[in-house]
């Protein structure tokens, strides 16, 4: 038994010794389920590990909000590290509609303004809070959540994720911004035809 444990320990240390320090994303290669392929170390520079979230996002849109991601696609240095970030700008009355991140837990910190936010558990329990500057909230992986600027001035938050590619699905767009037949949307949401057609027209859907 001791011989087996010793052999396994050697395998463990050997495998750990082969682990690379990093895997900067090679954006010229296709992205796979495990992320991007690694750029050759000789081509890696310090710029791969630096990214700016200092630019205010354009909130001149239907939701009056802007998300500036620093995921592996934008920030190659986080590829394979299990982390990423984003900047969230919310104009007055701005909203990030109900959405999920299938691949990551999210942590949000408010840097400016006031944000009403919350998430819904799989048991349909609601966890709701109004956050001010310096406040932090965590959203467990895969659960529906949202953010609303509940103040009268622009709000700013920074979010971090437990994945370099957290994924995103916005509920409103999933229902009304595609060609899913209206009859099926009505059947599964209990909305009437006029409401569904109106939302499809607003969000660019058809059918």
Automatic annotation (TrEMBL):
Record-level Gene Ontology MF annotations: manganese ion binding
Family indicated by similarity: Belongs to the germin family.
Signal sequence bounds: 1-17
Sequence positions that bind Mn(2+): 99, 101, 106, 145
Disulfide bonds: 23-38
Pfam families: Cupin_1
UniProt keyword terms in alphabetical order: Apoplast, Disulfide bond, Manganese, Metal-binding, Secreted, Signal
Principal subcellular localisation of the protein: secreted
Subcellular location: Secreted, Extracellular space, Apoplast
Positions of oxalate binding: 101, 106
Cellular component terms per the entry's GO annotation: apoplast
Protein name in UniProt: Germin-like protein
Keyword Mitochondrion in record: no
